[in-house]
């Protein structure tokens, strides 16, 4: 079995839904189809939530009716029969009546916000399943809320998903096409929750791992993982093959094409991940598996909104145990550290989760001296094959970065990653400079 995931733009227009139906029925293979919300919907739902949080029900109601009008016209173009259209309209009436009901709940809490934002995937999948039914395809909609669950730390419970999915597939596994929602799940309290923005990729990979799929395909609006961020750098090219490790580094360090955690379950079970373009299905895309090419520099990504902390030991020299004590504090506040640079008595670290920063810093201050943190930093991550025996690799990177101030460098964590910390204002400049220096791609 394969798992195919279609992102927001891939389902965002009726004609796109027509194309993905052609894609998924072009062979006879059984598939689990994971869908995101229609493009723009998740943002629109979050914006409705903002109005409700600000106690502006009138403004929220206006936004809701605007969104509903979009869906009304979407289903008018999608279905070919009056039975199909009636079904589509019923789905919209049901879901929007639930959305409207949320505007009457006061106060509007995080619980309601999560229920609201889940509506995007609930709408897209029901609308698509009704479309497959209209065309008499052998398909079923399996609700993700019955098999996707996160623990108290927000981490997916893969064992639970595996067990639940096995039961569901035993009951419905004869269907050729099994449609489900990306992104949404339940939390330990049984409430509706989600896997964070862009989480449908992660759903696909968790399902792929859980059922030991033959392949996970992520269908999006670009022909695979590019060598640099196409939103910032003009001349980029698709990479044909990446290892799980290389792709995981790029996703974690900002390549938006994949949710940061997508690769973990796929790698755990050795399930290949293929990135494909819905707008150009014949394009080769990117295959993420165990094989790679021996090219030195493969790709660059950047992660924004990074905070750098500068920590000094109060004891001078031979301060053993210092790192352990520091990292215990990061562990206590559930704050992952991305980059680390050390000297005899000082440590600099970067984090991107700052919700506990005040408490974390107060606790560090009980045994360290802290400088003022640097906010709005960016990690520039360069991925490739950097054999420790090969001279000149770091030189080439630093040469490309000539003229751009670098705050931290991490080299040698693996043979596949070099990371640099720069102020966010230099991010675009750094990505372009590295594109030119490492790939000889100069902007016109
Ligand atoms: P979807 O809605 O299908 O999940 P996303 O918008 O989340 O799509 O991801 C696809 C987008 O990721 C592309 O349109 C592109 O702008 C962006 N992107 C950022 N970095 C990269 C990269 N290195 N390679 C390819 N796409 C990238
Ligand atoms: N719809 C969700 C989002 O926009 C999940 C996804 O698209 O992957 O973040
Ligand atoms: Mg995405």
TrEMBL record:
ATP binds at residues 5-8, 220-221, 231. It is an enzyme of class 2 (transferase). Gene3D superfamilies: 3.30.70.260, Acetylglutamate kinase-like, Aspartokinase, catalytic domain. It catalyses: L-aspartate + ATP = 4-phospho-L-aspartate + ADP. Pfam families: AA_kinase, ACT_9. Pathway: Amino-acid biosynthesis; L-methionine biosynthesis via de novo pathway; L-homoserine from L-aspartate: step 1/3; Amino-acid biosynthesis; L-threonine biosynthesis; L-threonine from L-aspartate: step 1/5; Amino-acid biosynthesis; L-lysine biosynthesis via DAP pathway; (S)-tetrahydrodipicolinate from L-aspartate: step 1/4. One of its GO terms (biological process) is lysine biosynthetic process via diaminopimelate. Keywords: Amino-acid biosynthesis, ATP-binding, Kinase, Nucleotide-binding, Transferase. InterPro entries: AceGlu_kinase-like_sf (IPR036393), ACT-like_dom_sf (IPR045865), ACT_Aspartokinase (IPR054352), Asp/Glu/Uridylate_kinase (IPR001048), Asp_kin_monofn (IPR005260), Asp_kinase (IPR001341), AsparK_Bifunc_asparK/hSer_DH (IPR042199), Aspartate_kinase_CS (IPR018042). Residues 380-436 form the Aspartokinase ACT domain. Residues 2-277 form the Aspartate/glutamate/uridylate kinase domain. GO terms for cellular component: cytosol. Its EC number is 2.7.2.4. Substrate binds at residues 42, 121. It comes from the Bacteria. One of its GO terms (molecular function) is aspartate kinase activity. Belongs to the aspartokinase family. This is Aspartokinase. It comes from Larkinella humicola.
């Amino acid at each position: 079995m394969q798992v195919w995931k279609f992102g927001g733009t891939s389902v965002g227009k009726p004609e796109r839904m027509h194309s993905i139906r052609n894609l998924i029925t072009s062979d006879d293979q059984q598939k689990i189809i994971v869908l995101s919300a229609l493009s723009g919907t998740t943002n629109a739902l979050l914006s409705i939530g903002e109005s409700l949080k600000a106690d502006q029900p009138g403004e929220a109601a206006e936004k809701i009716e605007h969104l509903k009008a979009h869906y009304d016209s979407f289903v008018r173009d999608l279905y070919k029969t009056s039975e199909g259209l009636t079904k589509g309209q019923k789905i919209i009436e049901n879901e929007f009546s639930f959305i409207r009901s949320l505007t009457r709940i006061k106060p509007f809490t995080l619980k309601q916000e999560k229920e609201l934002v889940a509506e995007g995937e609930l709408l897209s999948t029901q609308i698509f399943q009704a479309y497959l039914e209209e065309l008499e395809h052998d398909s079923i909609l399996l609700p993700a809320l019955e098999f996707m669950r996160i623990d108290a730390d927000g981490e997916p419970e893969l064992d639970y998903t595996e067990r639940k999915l096995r039961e569901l597939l035993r009951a419905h596994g004869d269907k050729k096409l099994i449609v489900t929602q990306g992104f949404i799940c339940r939390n330990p309290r049984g409430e509706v929750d989600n896997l964070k923005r862009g989480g449908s990729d992660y759903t696909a990979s968790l399902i792929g791992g859980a059922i030991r799929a033959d392949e996970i395909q992520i269908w999006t609006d670009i022909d695979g993982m590019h060598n640099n961020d196409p939103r910032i750098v003009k001349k980029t090219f698709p990479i044909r093959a990446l290892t799980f490790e290389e792709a995981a580094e790029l996703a974690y360090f900002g390549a938006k094409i994949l949710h940061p955690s997508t690769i973990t379950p796929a790698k755990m079970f050795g399930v290949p991940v293929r990135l494909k373009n819905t707008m150009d299905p014949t394009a080769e895309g990117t295959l993420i598996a165990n094989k790679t090419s021996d090219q030195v520099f493969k790709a660059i990504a950047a992660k924004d909104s990074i905070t750098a902390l500068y920590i000094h030991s109060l004891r001078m020299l031979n301060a053993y145990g210092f790192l352990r004590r520091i990292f215990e504090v990061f562990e206590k506040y559930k704050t992952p550290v991305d980059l680390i640079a050390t000297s005899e008595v000082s440590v600099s670290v970067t984090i991107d989760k700052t919700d506990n920063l005040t408490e974390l810093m107060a606790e560090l201050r009980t045994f360290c001296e802290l400088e003022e943190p640097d906010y709005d930093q960016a990690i520039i991550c360069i991925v490739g094959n950097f054999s420790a025996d090969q001279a000149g690799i770091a030189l080439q990177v630093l040469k490309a970065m000539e003229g751009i101030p670098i705050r931290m460098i991490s080299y040698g964590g693996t043979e596949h990653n070099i990371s640099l910390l720069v102020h966010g204002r230099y991010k675009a400049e750094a990505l372009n400079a590295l594109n030119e220096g490492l790939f000889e791609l100069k902007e016109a």
